[in-house]
Specification:
This protein has helices at about 55-65, 165-180, 220-240, 285-295, 300-310, 315-320, 325-335, 340-360, 370-380, 390-400, 405-410, 420-435, 435-440, 445-460, 465-480, and strands at about 5-15, 75, 75-80, 90-95, 100-110, 110-125, 130, 140-145, 150-155, 195-205, 215, 250-255, 260-265, 275, 280-285. With about 475 residues, the chain is α+β, with helices and mostly antiparallel strands. It has 3 domains: about 5-290, no CATH class; about 300-410, no CATH class; about 420-480, Arc Repressor Mutant, subunit A (Orthogonal Bundle), CATH 1.10.10.410. The chain binds zinc ion and manganese (II) ion.
Length: about 475
């Protein structure tokens, strides 16, 4: 029997606000343990939460970016559970009236658009962190409550994905939207963006869903892809041997590259959700919604399609250029300066600039040169002032000392020679000195032509414009 994978995802993103969701404590990452707390986020009796307006607007922004329906009234609920890093024994979340629902995210997989439905987008508070000491002399587990109450956006997708390529595109596109809108810094290594895939299998053609396995503790996009692959394989084997799979939550072990059962999945009834009595409902007026919608930037997939259409780029080029907003912005800044075609500048961005960023392990913001430099370099090649090989050397110097490429070319005398009378003199000398090659060429050996180009390039130290050299050689050979 052939099986089909049905994959959905729950995404948690910490919002990039300076303070927590219901109190004024800072959210700075990496502060000494338990230094960013107050009675509210410690869950002391009698305290009252106050909604952070900026966090609420960030959440609203994403609900709109994900094409969700936003009702006029949204409200908060208590999700009850006991965990040592949750001092209140409940999390303020949303269950009955989510901020956004019935949205979708369009992703591009193998050059084609695919729609993943979004069930809901809601706002909640993060829990603290348990710290397990690494040295064997320390025992026990410590609790750090700095993270408690950090605003967290949860996005729940429909199980619309069928393979790992779609899961990967979903995660990357969603991460880009969060980065493009500036609502989260998406640092997965710091746990600020978490993807939890859920995977079930069913026989091809079957409509009902199989038992859903949710995977937690997956710390990177690569790990999520590996975990999904692992689950598809594990579940296929189990079903093939006639096993009945339970609905459960499993933990990903990155070191061993496998999942292990954590707990049989609780249902939402287990959380005893009830309306949070300490918070009022939030009314989202048409005007407020319109105002927040007005702050949305052009989103990644739209930008990618526009780059293809307006600049004549291929799907791959447009995808690479728009993968990072600052990279796309830099590219458009180069175009605004002009002096070279969009295609030529795109090639410099994708090949040389990106390679430099990767080699130096730096972000676009740390790239040493302004867009004018890259535009100028692309222009020098396109106008034929320097060849591509020389341009690569100029690029290396340009980024090493943030120098103007035209100035590097001038000071090192790298400019290509296109002066016809000068090149013609060299061509004449070379023809006179290579009678054998000339005779071979006339006897029909076309390879002899290249044997004549070599000496011309050598005599000009590689600076003669190859196109002019070819033209003049052809012309002189036809005349003689
Ligand atoms: Zn606090
Ligand atoms: Mn949640």
């Amino acid at each position: 029997m052939k099986y089909e994978a049905v994959i959905g995802a729950e995404v948690h993103a910490e919002l990039a606000t300076e303070t927590k969701l219901f109190c004024g404590c800072p959210t700075t990452f990496g502060a000494p343990p338990n230094t960013q707390t107050c009675p509210v986020c410690l869950g002391m009796p009698g305290v009252l939460p106050v909604m952070n307006r900026k966090a609420f607007e960030c959440a609203l922004k994403i609900a709109l970016a994900l094409n969700c329906r936003v009702d006029e009234i949204t409200s908060f609920d208590r999700k009850n559970y006991y965990y040592p890093d949750l001092p209140k024994n409940y999390q303020i979340s949303q269950n009955h009236r989510n901020l956004g629902r019935e949205g979708y995210l369009d992703i591009v997989v193998d050059g084609a658009l695919k729609r993943v439905n979004i069930w809901n987008v809601h706002l909640e508070e993060d829990a603290g962190k348990l710290v397990h000491p690494e040295s064997s002399s320390d025992s026990g587990t410590l609790v750090d409550l700095n993270r408690t109450g950090t605003p967290l956006l949860e996005i729940v997708s429909a199980p619309d994905m069928r393979n790992t390529a779609e899961v990967e595109a979903f995660m990357k596109t969603l991460r880009n939207i969060l980065l493009y809108t500036g609502v989260s810094d998406c640092k997965m290594q710091e746990g600020r963006l978490r993807f939890e895939p859920s995977i079930s299998l069913r026989p091809v053609g079957e409509q009902t869903l199989g038992a859903r396995v949710e995977v937690k503790n997956v710390g990177s996009i690569t790990a999520v892809v590996k975990a999904v692959e692992y689950e598809i394989e594990r579940q296929t084997k189990a079903l093939e041997s006639g096993e009945k799979l339970p609905q459960e939550t499993r933990l990903w072990d990155d070191r061993l590259s496998r999942t292990a059962s954590m707990r049989r999945k609780e249902t939402s009834a287990d959380y005893r959700y009830f309306p949070e009595p300490d918070l009022v409902e939030v009314r989202i007026s048409e005007e407020w919604q319109a105002k927040v919608r007005g702050t949305l930037p052009e989103l990644p997939v739209a930008k990618r399609l526009r780059f293809q259409k307006s600049f004549g780029l291929g799907d791959y080029e447009a995808a690479v250029l728009t993968d990072d907003k600052s990279f796309a912005d830099y590219y458009e800044a180069c175009l605004a300066i002009g002096g070279a075609s969009p295609k030529a500048i795109a090639n410099w961005m994708i090949n040389d600039v990106l390679r430099h960023l990767n080699e130096q392990r730096i972000e676009m913001a740390q790239f040493p040169c302004a867009p004018a430099r890259v535009a100028a370099l692309a222009g020098l090649v396109e106008k034929g002032t320097i060849g591509l090989g020389t341009a690569r050397e100029v690029f290396a110097e340009m980024v090493a000392a943030d120098r103007d490429p035209a100035e590097i070319v001038k000071s090192k005398g790298l400019a290509q020679i296109s002066d016809e009378s000068f090149i013609l003199e060299v061509v004449n000398r070379v023809l006179a000195a290579n009678a054998k090659s000339v005779a071979d060429y006339k006897a029909g050996k076309s390879a002899a032509f290249n044997a004549l180009i070599g000496p011309v390039m050598r005599e000009t130290k590689g600076k003669a414009n190859p196109q002019v050299v070819r033209q003049l050689l052809e012309k002189r050979l036809a005349e003689s």
